[in-house]
Amino acid sequence: MGGSADSAPAVAEAAAPAGSDADSAPLLADLMPWAVAPLRLGRGWVMAPDAASLRTRWDALVRAEGADRDALFGPSRARTPHSAVAQLPGRAAGTGRLARESGPCPEPVRVLHGAYDQRWLIPDNRLLDAARPELWRVADDRQLFAVEAGHVVPEPGGLAVVASALLPDGRSPAGRPGRIRPLYRRPRGREPNIAPRLLRWLGRRVGGKVAPEDLFAWVLAAGRATPRGCAVPLTADGDAWRAGVARGRRLLDVQVRGARGGAKPRLPGGRRPYVRAAIPARPAEVSYDPEEEALLLGEGRVSPVPRGAWEFTEGGVPVLEQWLSARLEPAEPGTLAAIRPAAWPQEWTSELLELITVLALLAEAAEPGAYEEADASGAEITAAELHEAGILPAPASARRPASVLDHHEEGPEGQFALL
To answer: Are strands 294-297 and 286-289 parallel, antiparallel or unpaired?
Structure first.
């Protein structure tokens, strides 16, 4: 299956010797060649912080008829209620034209919005301008996604690469799209999305077997945003490599929040954010008391909230404030997006406490990055060296989605296609 223009990496990502900058670190685009552009929803009402609102929005849509349904849907050049499109891989949504749809809402799925906001999405290709089916095809409980930050200027406290076990939409709170790089090119953890021969070659340099998730962890620990893209310094020092991988695995565990059989993140020393005063149905304002380490939601109070969690930014936008705004700011009346909980749901409280913990742990992970340890070791592996070894550039086929030949997918109007 060939890649579309959206799924193929930009020309600037193509691996090439760095010329006068020949000793620079390789880019993430060199090491994990296959990248997919962010999802393009086309209409905001198909995603929400809670699943119940999505089902209610769907019911309102299918109850409407004719021009009323069109207006609620929000047509775009890519999608209208009359568009004929294929089913999303692995999803049971219909493929008949949405203008004739009368059935129940497809079961909402959990996705990662931006870098840290876990939301719900209606997985129906008829609703999404660009759903990136190549991502859905490989999304399962073995998959990990690396999401590049949608900015190129290094940001204090921010991460150049975010990890997710959920399918990410690749968006940034600042509105700048990043790139999504699955760790595996095929379902069930098959065929790593890593430059061919790199793992074996790197294993010889660091003195031990390097698994795909070891390199993924190293990317999380060592990746740094540069004007060229996400640079990933490598080392041939075995001790520095193992220290970097260990740090990256800790970052991974925090970011995937207990997925893949791991433990939920917890603050050290027994500290744990609690609701000290009940959060009201609709908090009128949000503020932070740094002296008391307290997050104030109207009359509600949550503490301790470490200052690092409150000040943690992504793409220059405070993550906690953005998360709360998405749940508290009113939508335009009369739209499907205006269908939302009338009161603050209990599950939002649990999600808020978890997010505070995640951001606090990431803010505390301020020890020198693995790339600094590698530089100090004097054993850097440069992009030029990878070119000399024949590892780079990765072949063009590694930059395209893998072919999938073992299952059928439903096309428009119930037709089937073998991929």
So the answer is: antiparallel
Residue 300 lies in domain: 268-364
Which DSSP string corresponds to 39-58?
PB-SSGGGEESSHHHHHHHH
Strand order in the sheet with 47-48: 47-48, 117-121, 109-113, 167-168
Which two structure tokens, joined as six digits, stand for 252? 């991974």
Q: What is the pTM of this model?
A: 0.89
Answer yes or no: do 250 and 119 share one domain. Answer: yes
Based on the fold, state whether residues 153 and 39 are members of the same structural domain: yes
pLDDT of 217-273, one tens digit each?
999 999 988 888 899 999 999 999 999 999 999 999 999 999 988 889 999 888 999
Q: What is the spatial distance between Cα 76 and Cα 310, in angstroms, rounded to a whole number? A: 37
Confidence at residue 18, expressed as pLDDT on a 0 to 100 scale:
39
What confidence tens digit (pLDDT) does each residue in 309-320 have? 999 988 788 999
Domain shared by 247 and 381, yes or no: yes
Q: What is the dihedral of CA 173, 175, 176, 180, to 10 degrees?
A: 60
Asked whether residue 230 is domain-assigned, the answer is: yes
Q: Each residue of 334-372: pLDDT tens digit?
A: 999 999 999 999 999 999 999 999 999 999 885 555 455
Alpha-carbon gap, residue 65 to 43, rounded angstroms: 19
Number of separate domains in the chain = 2
Helices assigned H by DSSP within 11-104: 28-31, 51-63, 66-73
pLDDT the model gives residue 408: 59
* b/e burial code for range 227-240 (CB count within 10 A of at least 16 → b): eebbbbbbbbbeeb
Please say which residue of 364, 383, 405 terminates a domain.
Answer: 364
Residue type, 258: G
Tokens for 262?
């791991």
